[in-house]
Amino acid sequence: MSGHLTKDELLDRLYGLGEAEGEANLHLQQCAGCADRLRAYERRRAEAAASPEVSSEFLAVQRRGIYARLEEGPQAHLRLAPALAAAFALAMGLILVYPGHPSHPKAPIRAVPVAHFEMSDEQLFSNVYSMEQSAEPRAAVPMHALFEDEVDGEQ
Questions:
Q1: To which H or E segment does residue 89 belong?
Q2: Whole-prediction pTM value?
Q3: Residue 10 near residue 35 (C-beta atoms within 8 A)
Q4: Cα separation of 122 and 128, whole Å?
Q5: How far apart are CA 33 and CA 37, in angstroms?
Q6: pLDDT tens digit string along 54-87?
Q7: If we measure between CA atoms, which residue out of 10, 2, 68, 67 comes closest to residue 35?
């Protein structure tokens, strides 16, 4: 075996995954450093597996404290939460029902003259029919104007 045992080899040996007899076992007998590392791992494993040392009196005091806090009920700020929510809802309702006055008065609405186009029924139906029969979407019509201007300019 070359060098010391790796951490993985020591953990395998600790949990019984490695070979019980072989080069690793021989190396542990000859190398004090690796044997010390394995003993440290074994101590840590024993500490983690041991049950905690807590007296029943300590646990009883903890349990009584929890029961006392449960009997106190909710805190004062939690008791005020419904009242605050109701006040907020009332304020929002008043704002929506009675909106504030605008800072500047609105200008009176003036009548805008509408252009009148004289079109006969035949022309109207013809235009509607041509729009309906076109397979091209109306959004593409302005694109044609761009290309027609370029073609007209080239000629």
A1: helix 81-97
A2: 0.35
A3: no
A4: 10
A5: 6
A6: 888 999 999 999 998 888 766 766 778 888 899 9
A7: 10
